[in-house]
Design a protein that fits this description.
The chain has about 140 residues and is of the alpha/beta class. Helix content is about 45%, strand content about 10%.
Length: about 140
């Protein structure tokens, strides 16, 4: 049974897919920070190839920041792609503050652009709906 609807991708959904797939090439090297493993799986299935770090770990926030700084390196770019709910926004603001203090380049405009293209979605994993359109991409299949 086909799980896709008869509706095609909306313009904002097309733009969202494009920005997610293009951002690793445009901002290289890039490190993406997400909340959990489902976010990683979804982004991989959408074709995002950049390295990702999850905030949901047993690390303290300070240890997480140290790890992000180490992985991003001197010339790295960091895209904080936590959810756009209260918890995700709080995580983003805290990480931005700590990382900026360590001179890490944060892609704030890219986050804002992604948020604007997400419409009513608040959580990254809600983007799974992108696979349900008749002209949506096939999941890449990474886990």
């Amino acid at each position: 049974m086909d799980y896709r609807s008869a509706k095609p991708l909306r313009e904002n959904e097309r733009a969202l897919l494009k920005i997610l797939v293009d951002v690793p090439q445009k901002y290289n090297p890039l490190l993406i920070v997400v909340e959990g493993k489902r976010d990683v799986r979804l982004l991989r299935n959408l074709g995002v190839t950049a390295p990702m770090i999850k905030t949901q770990t047993n690390k303290t926030r300070e240890q997480l920041v140290d790890y992000i700084v180490q992985e991003a390196g001197q010339k790295g770019n960091v895209l904080i792609l936590t959810d756009f709910d209260a918890e995700g926004i709080e995580i983003c603001k805290a990480l931005e503050s700590l990382l900026e203090g360590r001179k890490v380049r944060i892609l704030k405009r890219v986050r804002i652009k992604i948020r604007s293209l997400m419409g009513n979605w608040r959580c990254i994993e809600e983007m799974v709906a992108l696979f349900k359109r008749k002209d949506s991409p096939e999941p890449v299949g990474h886990s």
